[in-house]
């Protein structure tokens, strides 16, 4: 029953940390209003009692105060009959005022001039900030510290700030971090409070006035000017977001201007730069009639002035990374050309597809109209951007090597990072990018070829490398981009083929040595390539870099699913060596003891693909060996523990690539080994448990000195 | 309890049928037969690269083997080594401790990573990390490495399981399908339990029961002539086939001649290695053999020497036997431990836990021979040359040799992504 006397807090937060002051004010107010009502003892039917006096009522709830001026609310029905009668009488006689006691704050502010910290600011802090920013406390045995080291539970702590410095700068809302974070747009990462609605316009205005009035603990006596919005008569009709903006913003700082001709108004010219150029860059955006538009000199200044406050390079603010809006950065040529996930914003020679230009020309009330603040760009600025796109959206002539993207001048060595990689990013990475996970499936780069770093470009794929430094004629990377337009192998498969300039650039990069760093000298793309010795690919001997399997893989086609299923009819397991290698491994491992020669016939349809054949432990005989002899690309054969005999070895003579032969546990004798003498490709022969003799093996060893022979 | 709850999800129709068959038909090998109807599609999906090795024998030294007295001895450092000497091996420039004279003759086929490091210094957690590449968490049970291998490489011999663990429990499939988990074999000599026809059931009775079951099914199979329905009757057929199959012999080391048992040593571990070789012959993907007794907090030098007699004989026997049969080429043999032991002996001539530096032995398929990777400073405390190799890097190295896709993502029931070696990097210095 005791919980009927739950503490009533006029404005829950006011009571919590504020202490005596508000209580005194409250008691002063109430006692003056309700002088008539005496203290008396209230009782509940269960016998609990409470001494206090009534200060108001609301419906069936009565508000009581005790002698130490704490307020309680009590349901009418919880009281004893005598108390009920007393209250009814009091209400009838108008001794008990209707309604809850009104909050104290208004009374205070009307008294003193300026915003009062304790009655106006502190309640907001308590309500909206103290969940996170309060004194350290224990929870579950762990000390919880205030977030960001900021405590807002007293004036001193608030003014102290944290390790990063003060968060309130008296008289300057712009420099007060606290004010900044409560006035951020609601979708900003840094907006405070992070949970719930942002502070209301009134609350923000209180903070603004308090800071401007000096951020003092007691009312300062000064009164900060009202903001325009509050005095504006059209406030109601205004668009809500606009209204918020005007309220949130502190009065704008005056931009520093210098009188023309004053020392400070002169252009700062960096050493080594022609003063004319520097001046042009700063005065910027006005190209002379007939002059080609230069990105750095004409376009960039416009972007800097009108776009970069939102479309800037990511920067760090109070420990958080602030990213550009819509992931668009307009701070350099490369970034402008990069666009965002929706695609490029500049399409050279195409004004309609160039979103950067089209958003400038939208009607001003369109959501996508840019710039959203500060009015539309003037016609002159739009014209510059328009002309720049129409002229091909080229980078500045003199700064190509410093920026990414574009084509290097003919006498400038090609840089991988600045020229090749941006091209790859633009035209190749859609398919040849890093593997990623989509809907729970890993999407791998097409053809196992990843082109997103220098290392990956040089690595190539399982078919081999795609760049042969110094020789574009054998560099697949170059060859596939210069194929005729109608060739199905032409890369990129979608969109236009690479331009002549881009092709030449790739060719030059390869000629210059295909290094990660630009070469010392530019190469002449039209020079006649030096004739190169071609290596003859004899059967069995291969380039040291490529394994036999890689070479053989190119000679066979990828087997179809039907073929593989047909081959598996007789309990064989047939698997491709790897994703990119169409050679097959065929093995009879399941129910091996019941498998005989009839099973091997099923492999006939794929015999040219088989590089590994394992029929160990089966009941296969020389018939199977004959079938194996017909598998021209066989490199690996295990007939361990089978019924094969010397006669079967004769059938292996057509095999030109075989390197591993396991005959352990068979009836092979010295006689049969003689048939292996001419098979020079054999590297490993296992004869343990067979019927060969030491002499037979000795002879085999002298015939095949490089092979490892175990018996 | 955790495992049981997770298995509830896994208890699909296939398992249900398998268990039902076990209950009704007396077919004892059903858990394995359940995995018989494997999705051959998975086995058909080739790896990213041609596999250099196709099988793994993982020799797990539990209790933390002293790396100094085995594979990474310090030369002329009596303060750390007491009187344990280093001996030359069959590979130039590679030395082992004198406790491993037989293994030393195989070092031309093997590599030793001297710079293994672990973040865990307690047995259970460290062992968990070694086996799963992930730190132990209360919220999930990660699949063991053998289960990953089974899942990603598929079954070669469809009649026996892909993943076997000899001596000691564990090896569970975590959140992967239960069939990829290890089949535990307690004592190698006893083979596989419950795989024979029940003794009270003679052949006629058994045939009668099968016939009765088929009779009951006639109408159903006629009504639903679907692939899945046929697959279930195939299951019965194959399970029966398996009970009489010679592949069951793979689990029976008594089929080996005495000379072979001698080669491996007649200890539990030696016979476990022999059984592992038999299983590899029958194309089991992954076999782990466990050997305990390495927690040498006191009397380290005598106890390690005694243990080494056992593992030296078994390991060298295994390598020799695999080599002779032509199986070493495609079998990767790993011997390692959850962490190492302190370089400086303690007051009781023992060595305590040391996760900051230990060693792993790799041999066979896909492994470069005669490589001693990395080096340790003269105090024996930490690596000074070579990258520190974390458990996930070791597992990535093995997975790479097996041609498995290191970036293949498998999702736990809660939708979190996991990969076989937790972003570990293969150590190419030891890969052929």
Helix percent of chain A reads: 25-40%
User: Sheet bearing the most strands of chain B, described?
Assistant: 8 strands, mixed
Oligomeric description of these chains: heterodimer
H/E topology pattern of chain B? HHHHEHEEEHHEEHHHHEHEEEEEEEHEE
Main beta sheet of chain A: 7 strands, mixed
What is the CA–CA distance across the termini of chain A?
Answer: 96 Å
Low-confidence stretches of chain A: 1-35, 103-112, 228-255, 531-545
Report the span from N to C terminus of chain B. 43 Å
Strand content of chain A: 5-15%
Annotation field: number of helices of chain A:
26
Judged by helices, strands and strand pairing, the structural class of chain B is: alpha/beta
Low-confidence stretches of chain B: 1-10, 22-45
CA gyration radius of chain B, whole angstroms = 23 Å
Contiguous helical run count of chain B: 13
What does this structure look like?
The complex is a heterodimer of chains A (711) and B (432). Chain A is α/β, with parallel strands linked by helices and 711 residues long. Chain A is built from 26 helices and 17 strands. Residues 1-35, 103-112, 228-255 and 531-545 of chain A have low confidence and may be disordered. With 432 residues, chain B is of the alpha/beta class. Helices cover 35% and strands 15% of the residues of chain B. Chain B has an 8-stranded mixed sheet, sandwiched between helices. A two-stranded antiparallel sheet of chain B has the order 2-3. In chain B, strands 9-10 form a two-stranded antiparallel sheet. In chain B, strand 2 (86-88) and strand 3 (95-97) form a beta hairpin. The two termini of chain B are 43 Å apart. Residues 1-10 and 22-45 of chain B have low confidence and may be disordered. Chains A and B meet through strand 11 of A and helix 4 of B.
